[in-house]
Amino acid sequence: xxxxxxxxxxxLVKEKNYSSLTVLAYVQxxxxxxxxxxxxxxxxxxxxxxxxxxRSWIVFLVENKNSNKTINRKIAxxxxxxxxxxxxxMIAISPLLKHKSLKVPKKLQIPFSEQxxxxxFEIIDFPEDFEGIRNRLIIELFYTTGIRRAELIGLxxxxxxxxxxxxxxxxxxxxxxxxPLLPCTITLLTNYLTxxxxxxxxxxxxxxxxxxxxxxxxxxxVYRIINDxxxxxxxxxxxxxxxxxxxxxxxxxxxxxxxxxVKELLGHASLSSTQIYTHSSLAELKxxxxxxxxxxxx
Length: 298
What we know:
The protein is mainly α. Helices cover 55% and strands 4% of the residues.
């Protein structure tokens, strides 16, 4: 393996604290580009790459039926790699400095209905033990705060402020935001932390959401929790933490929340990111409109 790739891999693990699967994906993308260079441009190393060569790789990927989304992910891996090379002064300028991502059509996420989310909390039986309360808390936090999966996994016990009834979240680009907590969430957090203190873990962790062995939970673990529980109340194909985050935003908008307020709660940098959630809200408004307008009465 190229020494720069090895150094980048160590940087992702030790400094960025990325998961092993994420690191593997980054490395595989960079090595795929390196292989392309070795076949078509034998004398060119990763350090000497120009944007024109990266464009040639993009054309190659398109011709080999890669989707724009897949290509954007591969280029994002390269971008991170060249930012790292800049950081360690192996290059003076990134070849991807002026690159613009390929356009990807936005897929409309179908949120859970209010009936489905209500069923989770009123019909599903959560055991009153550590795992049962923890699983309910995971669902509760997604639905009542709209946090991202990575944000939930990164929560620390100290992030909960019971006096102010807020939750401090570290979002993308290490941007902090404070989210209000509903009384039901505070009660559940109190019960969970009480049970957490009783668990005889060998090493007491500062993390909030822990496995039954006292370890930090993984992304796949959190995904399974949401998928398994919502499989009992929903027939929707996609049942994930992101769908639950989408559900949070949609239900707020359907019930009269201001778009700017939802933007702040979600931690979006711009309104354009939040506006995707208005599609479902508009569908709900259309139903109300058609049912209430005198010109549509039969």
